[in-house]
Design a protein that fits this description.
Pfam families: TetR_C_35, TetR_N
InterPro entries: AlkX_C, Homeodomain-like_sf, HTH-type_TetR-like_transc_reg, HTH_TetR
Shape: elongated
Keywords: DNA-binding
Distance between the termini: 20 Å
Protein name: TetR/AcrR family transcriptional regulator
Order of helices and strands: HHHHHHHHHHH
Oligomer: single chain
Radius of gyration: 18 Å
Strand content: under 5%
């Protein structure tokens, strides 16, 4: 059963970036650029304020401190990721098709994203705990998102009404494992390979 804290986190992650005020967007854009180039450890609120062309007081008024700024950046980028994912899979006719294409989009987006992919390369020691031993919140948010989609699809397609959350969590864990350690006998170097893998191994999980 999801807690109210998890519900709140998911709601914030799904909030549209367009709801931000102009100045907040300006600061967050500068923060993403700063963190991408220099990493989290080597970046300060002063650095972000200078890059955004505002005073440090302005940044503190909106984001409290550096941790609040980092969290706001991550939530916005996760929100944009979910929106990109929704846009990519919405036209597809079946849940199997959406699972396959969603896996492809998730890998492509995360690998190419300047902040997520960049931090994994620039400061893996900072990022990895949040995807592994401290990865509970990220796993919960992503699993919640996928569970809601699977539940709606099962209802629409007349599938079993069993709880789809274990299947959603398994799919998320598989995707994260490939992001963190792509080396192995399973080749996912291009999108066709990723589609073939998802069609063969992930789509059948929908019938589990």
């Amino acid at each position: 059963m999801k807690t109210s804290a998890n519900d709140s986190l998911l709601a914030r992650a799904l909030a549209r970036p367009e709801t931000e005020e102009r100045l907040a967007r300006q600061i967050l854009d500068a923060a993403v650029e700063q963190f991408t180039i220099f990493g989290l450890r080597r970046s300060s609120v002063d650095d972000v304020a200078k890059r955004a062309g505002v005073s440090r007081v302005t940044v503190y008024r909106r984001f409290r401190n550096k941790d609040g700024l980092v969290e706001a950046c991550l939530l916005r980028e996760v929100s944009r990721f979910f929106q990109e994912l929704d846009d990519a899979v919405a036209p597809l006719p079946t849940m199997q098709d959406r699972v396959v294409e969603g896996f492809v989009v998730a890998l492509r987006h995360t690998r190419a994203h300047p902040l997520f992919g960049g931090l994994l390369r620039l400061e893996p020691e900072v990022v990895l705990p949040y995807l592994t031993v401290q990865g509970g919140p990220a796993l919960t948010v992503t699993t919640d998102y996928l569970t809601s989609h699977l539940r709606r699809a099962r209802h629409t397609e007349g599938r079993s009404d069993s709880d789809p959350r274990p299947v959603a969590e398994l799919m998320v864990r598989v995707a994260v494992s490939f992001l963190l350690n792509p080396a192995g006998c399973i080749e996912l170097d291009d999108e066709e390979q990723s589609r073939a893998f998802a069609r063969r191994y992930l789509a059948p999980l929908l019938d589990a």
